Amino acid sequence: MPIVEGRYVCKISETYEPREGIDALKEEIRSAKNVRLQNIPDSLMKELMPLLKGKKVRIILPPETKPSKELLELGEVAIASSKADIYHVYKGKKVYPGGVYLPKIFFDVIPMEGEIVQVSTLEYPKCVKCMNQTFEFVWKRSKKAT
User: Fold this and answer.
1) Residue 126 and residue 116: Cα distance in Å, rounded?
2) Tens-digit pLDDT profile for residues 52-110
3) What is the Cα–Cα distance from 57 to 59, expressed in whole angstroms?
4) What's the whole-model pTM score?
5) Less Cβ around it within 10 Å: N or C end of the chain?
6) CATH code at 12-144
């Protein structure tokens, strides 16, 4: 943790308005070589697809989802196990967040009723490392799509 003027300083996370968060996410993807995505809403995935070409991409889709030909061409795709129910509570409602796992930052995307209502990040290195390990754990237990 860096020391600034004799104090430990660390930005843990940031919460964005949806459009600002998506723009920040796109900027981070541009410079990343490895991108991991989980449960990303279709509308956002379509926006991200041009930025993902040429990168090492892994995508985990919700249970019982059929991947499109475009997704299969983009990178490795897997279908999540239906044995888990992992969710957030957003303003009192159960929602299934999307995640974009990058080497130095994690983006959490909250969709509700077909619309992205919040984008936030985790930036503290230990938190990002843990989230990336969680993705790999889920990846190993997901059914690979062909």
Assistant:
1) 27
2) 999 999 999 988 889 999 999 999 999 988 777 778 899 999 988 999 999 999 999 99
3) 7
4) 0.90
5) C
6) 3.30.870.10
